[in-house]
Amino acid sequence: MCTDFTSLNKACPKDFYLLPCLGRLVDRSAGHEVFDFMNASRGYHQIKMLPEDEEKTTFMTEYDLYCWRVMPLGLKNAEAIYQRMVNAIFEPQIGRNMEIYADDMLVKSKMRGEHLKNFRETFARLRDSKMKLNLKNAHLR
C-alpha cells in the first residue's frame, strides 16, 4: 500500500533529530572481536500512532477509508522518531557493546567470553520494549 503524505508532510514541522554518523559507528567498533548483526522487523511499523494522529493518515481504497494505527513509511519525521526511540531503548549500551543505525543493530564484544552477556542484555531490552527482529536478515554467531 503506497500512501501519498505530501500534504501532511508539508504541514508538519521538520524534526531535526539526526541519524548517527556511520564513520563514528565504525570507529567505535574498532578493537572488538565478536559482532552480531540484527535488523528490526518492520521497524517504523513497531511504533503506534497517537490516537489523535491516526485520522491524519487516512487513505482511501476502492472499498473504504482506512487510517494507519502504526507509523507508516513516508512520513517526514518517521526516521527521526524511530532513531530517537531506539536510542532511548538502548542508550545504556550504545557505544559500549552496541551500535544502532535506524533499524540495523550491531552487538559487539571485545572478548568472546563477554558476548553472551552482551547479547542477553540486548535481548532483555528488546523484550522489555516489545521490539521484534527480522531473523532472516540477522547474522548471528
UniProtKB/TrEMBL annotation:
<feature type="domain" description="Reverse transcriptase">
    <location>
        <begin position="4"/>
        <end position="136"/>
    </location>
</feature>
<dbReference type="InterPro" id="IPR043502">
    <property type="entry name" value="DNA/RNA_pol_sf"/>
</dbReference>
<protein>
    <recommendedName>
        <fullName>Reverse transcriptase domain-containing protein</fullName>
    </recommendedName>
</protein>
<dbReference type="InterPro" id="IPR053134">
    <property type="entry name" value="RNA-dir_DNA_polymerase"/>
</dbReference>
<dbReference type="Pfam" id="PF00078">
    <property type="entry name" value="RVT_1"/>
</dbReference>
<dbReference type="InterPro" id="IPR043128">
    <property type="entry name" value="Rev_trsase/Diguanyl_cyclase"/>
</dbReference>
<dbReference type="InterPro" id="IPR000477">
    <property type="entry name" value="RT_dom"/>
</dbReference>
